[in-house]
Specification:
heterodimer, A: 290 residues, mainly alpha, 13 helices, 79% helix, flat, B: 247 residues, alpha/beta, six-stranded mixed beta sheet, three-stranded antiparallel beta sheet, 9 strands, globular
Chain lengths: 290, 247
């Protein structure tokens, strides 16, 4: 059978292939710097609206300032704490406690998540305990922790761990559940052993779920820490942001109470925006989700 | 005369997914020689994919013997590239699991991507590539495993016609260059005739081979050459009869 005139050579195939590739690859331009700056500052609009409504409410009603101080009074209270250095040391103390507890929680939760994520039997046995711990507000542990560990940093760490660990482990488990089965099949095709499978396929594939668990874990760690600091007040523990809030309550200083609440919220948002948001964006963008 | 080396042997293989279920494959016999390109064609549910899973060792036969002379690798309809790795790193992963060090791994992955005309795609993530490019990366990854047996489960089914034609050319070239033994599964009869040296038609429920064609057409063949069309017609008629049987 003679070859037909349309028959193409191997180099011809390569040329067609390269042409198709060039046509099919998408080149999406990145966001402009101006747009980025605008996006970063847009949440300030909401802050401004809240402050404006608050200030207007103060002007239009005659609520005494020990019930609701004005934004200016709160700022002054914070400034007083700042000048004495009390605010900085409270923020640093709380933040480092929270962060250390969070790291420890990651170290404990990750192996638990992997094992329960991959082993159905163990998950059936231990899963409900983990879920129960996640449902329980960790402040419920504070009285028990005080009895076990006294008014010591161990009490605070215990409460953080009990608050954060279940969220991180459960996030990782749901991340593992959502791995498309084809990746696990591929692990077999590539002849990965069990450890290689976890390291190179399961953990990265579960990345988005794990990250969501970490974010929730941090929020729980931070909340648990504040609850613990509010209840466990002792000179041995020093003053953290939670204790600062309690000082405000004891002194009947509403400006300090509201100021401390703002600081607690601000640190939570700060960690989310500065630590987690970039990691999340990178993870999702790298996988073509955004 | 040289002795024919057999890479894949199935003798009286039966596969059931539950004890009371009817078999997906029943009494299947197959021999694939070294360097042979065999295509299995059949309607949906004829157990083509199950058969590949058995050969690859992903699944075990209920009865009968499945033997391969060497390790095999399997390609799917989806490229199954890891979305968190670049094209190059996906190829590297296969090498890493074989114990290559970093330097050798990168050099070899570059070489393999060049083989599938993707030298410029090393750093691209899967979502930045077209379907055809992703499948070529998957081919490069399969080649990285350096298994003599390549099993392909409808690898081009989701691609457009032009891309599919190109990948046919590409696959035939790689098969010849590397002396691979290929078992290719498809429901596209023309594709089967375009690629295979031997085409086996499978019946459905239970799956078994009902007819075989040896294809001795001149290379390179094209999917739109008249001789491919004639043979494809003949096989399609048989396949239709087989499907009608289930009405």
């Amino acid at each position: 059978m003679p070859s037909t005139p349309q028959e193409h050579s191997s180099s011809d195939t390569t040329q067609i292939e390269l042409g198709l590739d060039a046509l099919e690859i998408s080149n999406v331009a990145g966001r402009k710097i101006g747009e980025r700056v605008l996006k970063a500052f847009s949440p300030l609009v909401a802050l401004f609206v809240v402050l404006a409504i608050w200030q207007i409410a103060i002007w239009m009603t005659d609520v005494p300032n020990y019930v609701l101080p004005s934004p200016g009074e709160v700022l002054i209270a914070l400034h007083t704490q700042w000048s004495s250095g009390a605010l900085q040391s409270a923020v640093i103390r709380s933040f480092s406690r929270g962060f250390e507890g969070f790291i420890l929680a990651i170290l404990i939760a990750t192996p638990i998540g992997v094992v329960l994520g991959l082993n159905r039997t163990l998950r059936n046995i231990f899963g409900p305990i983990l879920l129960g711990l996640q449902q329980l507000p960790s402040v419920a542990w504070v009285p028990a922790a005080i009895i076990w560990f006294g008014l010591s940093p161990a009490t605070i760490f215990a409460v953080i761990l009990l608050g954060a660990t279940p969220s991180i482990a459960n996030g990782l488990i749901s991340g593992i559940d959502q791995i498309p089965p084809i990746y696990l099949k591929l692990a077999k095709v590539l002849q990965a052993n069990r450890i290689q499978k976890v390291r190179f396929i399961v953990l990265p594939a579960a990345g988005p779920g794990y990250l969501a668990g970490l974010e929730q874990g941090w929020a729980f760690a931070w909340r648990s820490l504040m609850a613990a600091e509010l209840i466990a007040v002792s000179p041995a523990l020093g003053i953290g942001v939670g204790q600062l809030l309690d000082v405000g309550r004891q002194l009947g200083d509403m400006s300090l109470v509201i100021g401390a609440i703002f600081i607690i919220m601000f640190i939570g948002v700060f960690v989310e925006k500065v630590l987690f948001a970039p990691i999340r964006l990178r993870t999702l963008r790298g996988r073509g989700f955004v | 005369m040289s002795v024919r080396v057999v890479d894949v042997t199935l003798s009286s293989v039966t596969k059931r997914f539950g004890e009371k279920e009817s078999p997906v494959l029943e009494n299947v016999n197959l021999e694939v020689g070294r360097g042979e390109f065999v295509v299995l064609v059949g309607a949906s549910g004829c157990g083509k994919s199950t058969l590949l899973n058995l050969i690859s060792g992903l699944d075990v036969a209920t009865a009968g013997v499945v033997a391969t002379s060497a390790r095999s690798t399997l390609m799917f309809q989806e490229s199954a590239l890891m979305p968190w790795l670049s094209a190059g790193q996906n190829v590297e992963l296969a090498l890493r699991l074989r114990g290559f060090n970093k330097e050798d791994r990168i050099a070899r992955a570059e070489e393999l991507l060049a083989k599938v005309n993707l030298s410029n795609a090393y750093g691209k993530r899967p979502h930045e590539l077209s379907g055809g490019m992703r499948q070529r990366v998957a081919i490069a990854r399969a080649l990285a495993q350096e298994t003599p047996i390549l099993l392909m489960d409808e690898p081009f089914a989701a691609l457009d016609a032009i891309t599919r034609d190109l990948l046919h050319d590409e696959l035939i070239r790689l098969w010849q260059e590397n002396g691979l033994t290929v078992v290719f599964v498809t429901h596209n009869v023309r594709e089967a005739v375009r690629l295979g040296q031997r085409v086996l038609l499978m019946s459905s429920r239970p799956g078994k081979f009902i007819k075989e064609w040896k294809i001795e057409l001149i290379e390179p063949r094209r999917i739109d050459s008249p001789e491919v069309a004639v043979l494809a017609r003949e096989i399609t008629d048989e396949l239709r009869m087989e499907i009608k049987r289930h009405a």
